[in-house]
Amino acid sequence: MLEKLCMLNSTSGDEKAVRDYIISEIKDYCEYSVDPLGSVIAFKKGRRTPEKKVMLCAHMDEVGFIITDITEEGYLKFSAVGGIDTKVVIDRVLKVNNINGVVGVKPVHLLSEDEKNTASKFNDLVIDIGAKTRAEALEYVSHGDYAYFCSDYTRLGGNLIKAKALDDRIGCMLLIELIKSNLEFDTSFCFNVQEEVGLRGSKCTSYAVAPDISVILEATTAADLCGVKGGDRVCVLGEGPVVSFMDGRTIYDKALYNLAMDTAKSIGISAQTKTAIAGGNDAGAIQISGKGSRVLAISLPCRYIHSPSSVVDENDIKSTRRLLSALLPKLYD
What we know:
With 333 residues, this protein is α+β, with helices and mostly antiparallel strands. The chain has helices at residues 2-7, 16-26, 113-116, 134-138, 166-180, 200-209, 254-266, 283-286, 314-327, and strands spanning 31-34, 40-44, 54-59, 64-70, 76-81, 93-96, 99-104, 126-128, 146-149, 154-156, 160-163, 187-192, 213-221, 242-243, 294-302, 310-313. β4 (64-70) and β5 form a beta hairpin. α7 (254-266) crosses α9 (314-327).
């Protein structure tokens, strides 16, 4: 399921492919609706109806690109949709309307000394689809079309998975699995749109559901690389799910944070926290939407996030499944 989800292309504002796949997987297991912005709101009946309303959510969109202009020579100008470092884009293959193109930039031997010491900007880049003129390019591409990283889904070593869009197709997969399982309590699930461009979908779905407690399933930056030590690593592959106490958008509910950490310990799995106050996720909007909600984020550590070669550890996915299974019933106490 994770491979199928990652290989689909669905950036912010263009989530239809992932949404259609999710609906095909959950439609026989729950009630669901699609809100005007495009998010999926699902309700799974459990064996009991609790007093507290609990919502679990993940986002469907991935980072990508949008075509902004076409030059007279047939090159495509483009901008990022979401937070992407230009260094992971140069010379990559992108797909636009099922056409492959290469991201080009001024050759290094033609750069001035100042240009060599300055990071490229998206305005410096073009997509080369092989067109010779603007008119030829316009036969295949239009302004506002989306472009995506071309990337395969493969394994590195024994347990590592490499793919694009692991942020946050892992969360989507885990939600689908929970919806298909037998739950003790009634639970709401939201597959949100447009997280990567400002947490937009979650603001709408959380207002509609009005949860008391919200659990956000995500992927988060791991910097456990050669030469990076201590807290600068942020989190580490293979050391279990990441339970955040604070990030750039949210201060998480302390009692929920402690409950998640204690639950992990009680079932014998390792869990870690995020040792950098940076980034953010849908919790930032959910926490302050409507009447407000207590929030908890459980994330998978992910190297090279927001690139075509994100990497996660399959053992962390297994540990996160176990943590969710043990934790969910406790949220209703």
